[in-house]
Amino acid sequence: MPIETGFENIVRRGELMAMHTWFQLGGAAEYFAEPETPDQLLALVKRCHAEGVKVRILGRGSNILVRDEGVKGLVVHLGAPAFCEIRFEDRSVVTGGGALLGQVVTSTVNRGLAGLETLVGIPGSVGGALHGNAGTRTGGIGQWTIQATVVSAAGEVFQRQADELAFGYRQSNLDELAILEARCQLEEDNPRELAKRMQKHWILKKASQPLGHQSAGCVFKNPRGASAGEMIDQAGLKGTRIGGAVVSERHANFIIAEPECTSEDVLRLIDLVRNQILERLGVELELELEVW
Ligand code: EPU
To answer: How far is Cα 74 from Cα 122, in angstroms, rounded to an integer?
Structure first.
């Protein structure tokens, strides 16, 4: 059965992924869906599972590069209000997986709850942030997370408690298909002090990263005890260009996509940087960015 049958109002074909990624690059998804409720999501995932159609969940597209040839299967965007709720229970914030991390950060600060303020300026959804344990040099969202509700590739819902959650540097064991909801347990603090701390983090981030450009954050993970950005900078690679893809002059671990850029340009530039760092420093850089 075609996977759209019964889901005509939420599934469309050939949606350009460039419209949904921070890079503004990437070909079309074979199928693209924006479910309005968790029940719709589960029914659609079960249909795809039965029909052997691969499903991918798109957060807010801030940490992915979609190839120019696009993606086979279904891409699901969890942007509907039902997936983006943010509510408070004592010192916990409970958020939908589709909620914007930035909104969660500011609402916890306004509420006088400390923990997430250092994540200011990190784009993307809570689901994406948890999947890759998004964070700063001092830690990630995972250290505050005590519960998550996830959906398997077969469309089953599970709850993971704190002792079943494991977070490391830019990684987590939340590798099921989708994250529906998460609970972070925070600490009470003075809202004014918190807002000041958040602002300090934001100023530092803005000063060191090319936030106003088309990019997808850091391209490579930091090798243990080192900084990929510093290595690429010291190798003299800032400003290196392939087609419309350029290594940022502001922070060497960012690749900027200029207007005529293609995903292939970015991929070739990634290879060039990786090969140069391997040849010159003997270090194999690992991608932080996800490539679809
Ligand atoms: N540096 C350079 N040249 C550059 C970039 C950095 O010399 O072009 C030097 C800096 O001067 C500093 C050191 O490298 O001495 C570290 O730089 P920075 O503080 O910018 O941190 P980073 O290790 O490059 C990490 C995260 C960022 C996060 C910042 C701030 C990774 C791969 N990157 O960057 O996360 O915002 O710390 O906490 O872990 C991301 O994950 O997408 C991301 C941007």
So the answer is: 26
* Non-local CB neighbours of 37 within 8 Å, separated by 6+ positions: 80, 82
3-state secondary structure of 104: helix
pLDDT score recorded for residue 150: 98
CATH top class, domain 210-291: alpha beta
157-189 residue pLDDT tens: 999 999 999 999 999 999 999 999 999 999 999
267 CA distance to ligand 1 middle (Å):
21
Q: Which atom of ligand 1 is nearest to the CA of 254?
A: 44
Measured CA to CA, the distance from residue 246 to residue 215 in angstroms comes to 10
Q: How far is the CA of 173 from the centre of ligand 1 (A)?
A: 24
* Alpha-carbon span 127 to 118, nearest angstrom: 18
Given the candidates 2.110.10.10, 3.30.465.10, 3.40.50.2300, 1.25.40.10, the CATH classification of the domain at 84-207 is 3.30.465.10
Ligand 1 pocket test: which of 253, 254, 285, 288 has the largest number of ligand atoms within 8 Å of its C-beta?
Answer: 253
Per-residue model confidence as pLDDT tens digits over 65-96? 999 999 999 999 999 999 999 999 999 999 99
Which ligand 1 atom is at minimum distance from the Cα of 252? Answer: 8
Pocket of ligand 1 (CB under 6 A): 136-137, 208, 217-218, 221-222, 227-230, 233, 251-253, 288
Chain segment 202-233, per-residue pLDDT in tens: 999 999 999 988 999 999 999 999 999 999 99
11-81: in CATH 3.30.43.10: yes
Let me know: does 179 contact 149? Beta carbons within 8 Å: yes
Q: How far is the CA of 254 from the centre of ligand 1 (A)?
A: 10
Q: Are 78 and 32 in contact (CB under 8 A)?
A: no
Domain range summary for the chain, segments of one domain joined by +? 11-81, 84-207, 210-291
